[in-house]
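P.,

For your records, the input lines for the assembly:
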Amino acid sequence: MSELGSLTQSARKNELKSARGILFFVGIMTLLVNGFMFANAENEIKTVFDAEVQKIQQQGMMVDQNILTQEKAKGLQLVRLIYGGGAALGAVFCLLGAMIYKKPVPIVILALILYLGGNAMFGMLNPASLLQGIIIKVFIVVGLVKSVQAAIAYEKERQAQPEPEPTF
Amino acid sequence: MSTGDEPDRNSWMTEPDEVQAEVPSEASPGEEECVPSAECWRCRLPVPIVLAECPRCHANLVREVTPIPSDAHGAKDVVQVIVGFTLLLLLSLGVGVIARLQPEQEVLVALDGIGAVLMAIVVMVCLRRVPATPQDLIHPGLASQLCAWVASPLILAALLAVNFAQAQFLRDLIGIKHDWILDRQGQYFLWFLVTYTIPPAIFEELFFRRLAIDVFARHIDRHSAILIAGVMFGMAHIGQPLGIPYLCLFGVVLGYIRLATGSLYLPMLLHALHNGFVICKEDWINAW
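Structure tokens returned:
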């Protein structure tokens, strides 16, 4: 490989290193936030339902406690499913970050798709969350796109060049 | 001291004619114009292009320029697919947010129609520059094509069974009473049936099974390409978040069917039938 080529490959490796850092950062943050919310789901459901019951009672209506208990349980299941899914997504990001050097191109593309899709899904559940941390999200997406470009070029170069023989 | 012979003043001096003979004669103005010249990259003065070195600044005029590879250029097609996917996600997000407000049926009719048209526009724009299909995806064997066509009813039945089972399991687990399909029953049922079977079968297949798989297969192995396209397909259906794992599986299966048949006809047909069965399920259950 020419000197220019090896320098370019080093730059691409650094880009993949940045991508790994991004994936670990996103994965750990997602895991921590969703894990905390999962653990706090019962309190969250209790707060929401108590507020709704209060509103209903202020209107002079009664609430059937049996139905309320059933609805609380179902609500808790749903919330735990959502936050559990989010935590699982965070774990997937960490796994992709750990495996990035094995198959850089598919892993970085998959990570980008999961990141965009995950944000869109949580945006569907809570549209206001789309704008929260928008600058960081943009940086992450741009970083992952650049990593896709670097990974493709890196793999192409790696497949084109044979491994250098060790010299003694 | 004087000698008889006067020293020849010219003996140690070269003859002017000899000097003139040694100096290379300058080219006549006419000859100079015939030799093409270029600009020296260092001193910017005209130099005949036949020279390897500038006679004035001695710059090397024969330089091999190694083009610096542009990483962005090599991944342009992948980035275009990602941009198309993002647009489809935004479209799903918009439609899903409005649909969750449980509007009137007329609003849903308009929403589904507009959603289908916008999806078609996004996909057709992305397909403007369709890359050539990689060779190993074009010519599957006759045996694999036959197997795919013969097995397709069984594959469809298995997929529908998995779909209904997972939907029922999640409903029982979470106790969801409201289903997006129930909103599409009633007097506009036929409209919903058409908008949920034909446009997705055509345009989603064109985007995910044609464009995405072909673009990814140019950079990675075809199995990874099919897997990633399947995950993209599932994630694009954010309007049905609980169905995303099943839809990823559905996308992967359709990807392998495309690989087995080498064309989009069977995936389009299965997609349309699958969606049709899902829409009609509630109607049939009510009739039962």
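Two observations worth noting. The longest helix of chain B spans residues 142-174. Residues 1-32 of chain B have pLDDT under 50 and may be disordered.

Regards
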